[in-house]
Amino acid sequence: MTDASFGGALAIGRADFLAGAALIGGEWVDGEQSIPVVNPATGGILGHVASLGPSHAGAAVTAAAAALPAWRARTAQERGRILRAWFDAINDHQRDLSRILTAEQGKPMREAEGEIAYAAAYVEWFAEEARRAYGEIIPGHAANKRLLVARQPVGVVAAITPWNFPAAMVTRKLAPALAAGCTVILKPSEFTPFTALALARLAREAGVPDGVINVVTGPPEAIGAVLTNDPRVRKLSFTGSTRVGKLLAARCMETVKRLSLELGGNAPFIVFDDADLDKAVEGAVASKFRNSGQTCVCANRLLVQSGVYEAFAERLAARAGALTLGNGLAGACDQGPLINEQALAKVERHVEDARARGARLLTGGTRAEGPGHFFQPTVLTEVSPDALLCREETFGPVAGLVRFHTEREAVTLANNSAAGLAAYLFTRDASRVWRVNEALDYGMVGINTGVLSTELAPFGGIKESGFGREGSRHGLDEYLDMKFLCIDVEPLAA
Ligand code: SIN
Hints:
Shape: globular
Low-confidence stretches: 1-7
Number of helices: 15
Number of strands: 24
Radius of gyration: 24 Å
Bound molecules: succinic acid
Distance between the termini: 79 Å
């Protein structure tokens, strides 16, 4: 299918992947109103999705609650088999899904394909983990007591997902929830709903029963209010900004829901004098410019030791300046657009603020000309630690370099943030790897690498970056309640 309304570039095989109906209890629901979905690379309208409100969100909770008893009663093996079929279906449709993802989110096709593979990997992982929701037997505190721990599904789960990873953040929540025996109401970002709806279609085709996955599209406030207030929802998993995470968490406390919060980061990327500079530069490019800098784990502050500062800056600027910008659907490129005008304005503000405080521009620094929300890959040196670039998450393709002299200074600068998601360090000194890593107040540390995300490891932060872990065997725990059984046993008859 080719949709000419946004530039004629979207060719996909599955026309229904661009249908904008939401999914409630196995029915596709259009609603009375719709909202446009824009291609950030062109500004053109890609399509429309249902704009649902409180009554539909409530209906989705009812559907999820109704589907729960049968779904949780299935064996873990059965649930795992269905997840495995979903994994296969995602792989079979990788090209169509990648094109939709690029069209609504803007990342280059190569990155979109990578994200679909990453999204599928969570489904495969949790298809296998479904069978490992082991309990425990604890030696009793008295001769007649048997102590057991069973693990049971939390129940109805609300999952609110962001626009920067429209596929992977969906499967990272839905796959463990389903594996554990929970049912879900998914609220995808209103900027990137088509990928989520396509994934839901594939899940149904793979055998996920009606009501087990419900997708509610529309404005976040009204839907979020229902999902956080309704006592039938027993858990909220949210990925997004710290500001919104705090609001949602406060609302969830009215009904004391379980929470997983993956919130904003402000990652320090530390390069020591003894680092392998080629590796550090490549790591910085991978971390900083992945998804045009729109990731929670991307390097936000590049702390570089004085001995390699100039060399690192020069090489990074050369690499950044050579990155090509483009509409991912039109051909190969290194960088896509930012998601919208608001995102561009924030990046501009951060660059202006840094320069006003004395930072020097090595490359980039402005919007790119033409349609779409493009910002040039940018490198600034001599950035003040007080600059907005260092204090806030920029969420754009701007590398701000801060100079440091000693290891202690680097750790102090790195920890000077309310955020605690990811940090990176580059050094060849094995003792320093341990010392510095242990001193960093972050949930994840990349050592001599700028890329750390994988379904195999626990993804998540500390401090104001949230709590809870996604992926790995720990990701399943987030959707399981622990139940302690204390059993009185009659002694053997004499
Ligand atoms: C995020 O930006 O929230 C997720 C990034 C990742 O999974 O690598």
